[in-house]
Write a structure and sequence with these properties.
binds magnesium ion, globular, 704 residues, single chain, seven-stranded parallel beta sheet, alpha/beta, binds adenosine-5'-diphosphate, six-stranded parallel beta sheet
């Protein structure tokens, strides 16, 4: 194989390639498959020779030679047919058998094929075959899958295994890859030579070659890394270009007036001091808003981390600069909550503020729209209702978007249209989901990012313990009883509503059964209530109200309590079958306690050796936990990109490839800075490569 670093195509060869242009048509050729196999290939995304060559093997197995096979071993071998014959079928019900003497350099064996009598004529002596199957006693090889291959191979060469599909086996894919191996030479090189040299990346063709045929593990890995780097670089380039284009088109309102209102608000109206993270976020955002480039920032922080305070400060900057600000929430309830929070946080500050949702009465709505248009109203909180057509602002400069996982192009355009002609609003996206750094770069790499990690000092840390076994469980109920006797309240969370909810649910605790058991058993001295998703709305409300008012001591619940319950007097939560929940869900759940002045406790019932439960016991920081969660996922299980609708990575795997991602990001930033349109000769192949690999980003780039 060609050497790697610096071992690109020689200039003579590249000249030849130019002369032979357009040879890459070879890569666009459809695969020579018919019927079922063609359908299967289609489903695997293997339409053309080029796509086949970019289909990464799932694993590599040690290549086997005939002589080395042991009885009972399942293996792939590459052999040549010496003789072949179909054994006649004498009786009905007997399976047709084709027997072939096949051999490699180490010796012969007898391969048997069942129920495919036509093979005797299809694979005449001299045919080279890839066979996958089981080696049995008496030097017989029972073939499971087989394919013709033209390529000669060294005895015992490692073979790649591919994710297969019904109708197209890994062996057939391997044979196809071997057949089209010469086309690898046509694989083009989109990366600038300078970058490849600096990062010591093999040429693309060499990487593809190594991926399928690499002999040394480190060559295979070097090839994979090279392709992973490219995939990450193209994504980051696409994201940064999208950001750039958006900025290039539009100007924002520079919010640079003296901080008359916001400074006074911080000093006198706000009833607490800001956390360090809040201060840093406010400083960063204030500076950004003062510029004419419309901000596009993601503000991440867990529930209670104080995002609203940071967002409100930005909104006040708009107001004191003579402009308007809006906050958009995904649901009416959330909009109402934000409205109430903002009113409370504003204290006595004279800021005109209104709430606009789908259920705002017509007369009120008309009044709000009038005051918005005249500029009399400075701040508007609402749902999507506020970007609908009839809503007109006099001078909208800032929009805060809560938990709206990146709204679409249409909504974004509607939002931009609300700003004065020729201007785009600054946009601050808020999310309470702590997103690991690597995923945030891939999913939100076109946004600047700010994190609030530090929870306001008033929040109580939540001591989290693992409860395993009967003794520990008895002790857990004692601890709960202690809290209850001290006047506090408790949650008990179960994974199921009823025992019969799931097949084989015997091991799982159900809320209804646990409710009955506890109020007659361990917690019989206390007032226990039940809440779950299958209860009538009225019943649920009654249970919640009783618990919130302190009329119930214990709330036995399913995960319905995950959202929107705030009972500061609740100090302990016991979670049954905690191993059934995800890390982030458990972290969210336990956030229901520790909201008051008393120390809080979370008891996780589950297996002693669960690394996820151990992580929860050890860490209270949601961002830290999100990173651990990502680490603990099975290698190759790619998440995150799926959520945002981006194509999954083919070669990269996060968080393992974090280093590659960071360097790809740095390169992308540098390339875009020096050549924003990617039009310099060494960069011209990048834009088409981005468009081919990530059509969804490029399309949005055009629209944004
Ligand atoms: P988030 O929007 O991130 O969930 P909020 O901004 O709504 O958080 O703040 C949650 C609660 O904590 C609010 O009641 C808020 O008044 C309070 N809070 C915010 N920042 C601080 C702080 N630095 N110190 C004390 N309390 C704070
Ligand atoms: Mg909030």
């Amino acid at each position: 194989m060609a050497g790697f670093a610096g071992g690109g195509v020689s200039s003579r060869e590249s000249l030849l390639a130019t002369v032979r242009w357009p040879r890459p048509a070879l890569l666009e050729q459809p695969l020579p498959l018919k019927g079922k196999a063609a359908e299967a290939a289609e489903s695997l995304g293997l339409g053309s020779v080029g796509q086949l060559l970019e289909y990464p093997p799932r694993a590599r197995r040690e290549g086997r030679t005939v002589a080395a096979l042991g009885p009972g071993e399942t293996a792939t071998v590459i052999v040549e047919v010496r003789s072949i014959s179909s054994r006649p079928v004498h009786r009905r019900g007997m399976r047709a058998i084709v027997e072939a003497t096949v051999a490699d350099e180490t010796g012969p064996m007898v391969a048997t094929f069942f129920n495919q009598p036509w093979l005797a004529s299809r694979y005449p002596p001299g045919t080279r075959l890839v066979l996958h199957g089981k080696y049995e006693a008496r030097n017989r090889f029972r073939v499971a899958t087989h394919a013709r291959t033209e390529e000669a191979s060294e005895a015992g060469e490692d073979v790649a295994h591919y994710a297969a599909s019904e109708g197209l086996s890994s062996t057939q894919i391997l044979a196809l890859v071997r057949e089209f191996r010469p086309a690898i030479a046509e694989v083009g090189e989109p990366l600038p030579a300078r970058l490849r040299a600096a990062e010591r990346l093999p040429a693309r063709a060499a990487a593809v070659e190594a991926l399928h045929f690499g002999v040394q593990e480190r060559d295979v890995e070097a090839g994979r890394r090279r392709l992973a780097f490219e995939e990450l670089l193209l994504l980051q380039l696409g994201l940064l270009r999208r950001r750039l284009l958006r900025r290039g088109d539009a100007h924002g309102v520079a919010l640079d007036a003296p901080p008359s209102l916001s400074a006074r608000w911080l000093e006198t109206s706000l009833p607490f001091t800001l956390t360090g993270d809040q201060q840093a976020a406010i400083a960063e955002i204030t500076q950004e808003l003062a510029g004419a480039i419309p901000a596009q920032r993601l503000l991440m922080g867990e529930v209670g981390s104080g995002k609203t305070v940071v967002a409100l400060h930005a909104m006040l900057r708009a107001v004191e600069s003579g402009a308007q600000a809006a906050l958009m929430a995904p649901t009416e309830t959330l909009a109402e909550q934000h409205f109430a929070t903002i009113q409370r946080l504003l204290g006595g500050e004279p800021v005109t503020l209104a709430l606009l949702t789908g259920s705002t009465p017509a007369a009120r709505r008309a009044e709000i729209l009038g005051r918005l248009q005249s500029g009399e109203l400075s701040m508007l909180v609402g749902t999507h209702a506020l970007i609908e057509e009839p809503v007109r602002f006099r001078k909208l400069a800032l929009v805060v978007v809560d938990e709206q996982h990146r709204f679409g192009v249409r909504q974004r355009a509607a939002l931009d249209a609300k700003a004065p002609a020729g201007l785009a609003p600054h946009v601050l996206h808020m999310t309470a989901t702590p997103i690991p750094r690597t995923l945030a770069l891939c999913n939100y790499g076109d946004l600047d990012q700010t994190r609030l990690r530090e929870l306001p000092a008033r929040r109580q840390p939540i001591a989290t313990h693992l409860v395993s076994g009967t003794r520990a469980r008895a002790r857990a109920y004692e601890r709960i009883a202690e809290e209850l006797h001290a006047g506090r309240q408790a949650f008990v969370v179960c994974p199921l509503v009823e025992q019969s909810d799931e097949p084989a649910s015997g091991e799982l605790r159900a809320a209804t059964a646990e409710f009955e058991r506890l109020r007659a058993g361990e917690l019989r001295d206390f007032r226990v209530v039940l809440i779950h998703g299958q209860m009538a709305h009225r019943e649920k409300q009654a249970a919640m109200a009783a618990f919130a008012a302190g009329e119930a001591d214990v709330l036995v619940a399913t995960t319905v309590i995950e959202v929107g319950i705030d009972v500061p007097n609740a100090t302990v939560m016991l979670i049954e079958n905690a191993e059934r929940f995800g890390i982030s869900q458990l972290h969210q759940l336990r956030g229901r306690v520790g909201r008051g002045e008393h120390a809080a406790l979370c008891l996780l019932c589950g297996p002693k050796d669960s690394p996820r439960l151990a992580a929860l016991a050890a860490h209270g920081d949601g961002f830290e936990l999100a990173e651990i969660d990502l680490q603990l996922r099975k290698e190759g299980e790619l998440i995150g990109t799926r959520q945002s609708g981006l194509s999954q990575f083919r070669f990269a795997s996060l968080p393992q490839d974090e280093g590659l991602l960071l360097s790809a990001r740095a390169w992308a930033a540098r390339l875009i800075e020096r050549d924003p349109a990617l039009e310099q000769p060494e960069n011209v192949l990048l834009a088409p490569a981005i468009a081919a690999r990530y059509p969804e980003i490029s399309a949005r780039t055009m629209l944004a």
